[in-house]
Design brief:
Alpha-Beta Plaits, 5 helices, alpha+beta, 10 strands
Length: 239
Amino acid sequence: MSGEDADPDYCPRCGVACEPLQEYCLGCGERLPANRGVVGVLVREWQRRLPWYPGDWVWPALLFLTVAILATAAAVAAGSSGGSGTTIVAQPTVALGPGRRQAAPPATAPGTVPAAPQPTVTTGPLPKAPGAPSTPARTMPNPAGAVASWPAGTTGYTDVLESLPLASGRQTAAARARTAKLAGLPRAGVLVSSAYASLHPGYLVVFSGVYRTPAEASAGLAAAHSHGFPDAYVARVTH
């Protein structure tokens, strides 16, 4: 295939792009979250806009907070409009003599005591406390700096920019892929050669582009050579 595909998802551990139905990250081996349904849509939209995703517990917490706010507002409105006053009139007595008592005139300034509003109690399960999710929260790298991964189940051709030994570390390979991306090379990313039968195992391969034919891949070599990758060559990638 040629050109950019639809916006991919990203591994929450290493930031490598992944396909929507991919179960494991091809870069670090992390099991990817199964973001499906309404929660999956909300998670993907969050991850596209914010660099940190706290975990799926945030959605029931937000729902509980909304219900609590609405219940509190209803209780305050009911207390301010439904409280009726009660008038209290004092009736003191005055002694007129031995064995005789007469009621005094009623007080001229009765007081009004408002009725106290009834308390409102919201019941329901409490969400998990922020900062203590079931699994430790990880800080996800900014998707703008993420590098591409080879599409799962795809056989095609690419421009191999560099092949680095595994001992060099993924961060070094990802940095080279970002350099290629900033230089304008298409779909720059990193793959582990051991996962592909057509590549020599033991390397982190920095590549550019996913092509259907060798001719399409060869057309991109000139750009790779002129942007700091003079040893780039065409290679077939197959599982």
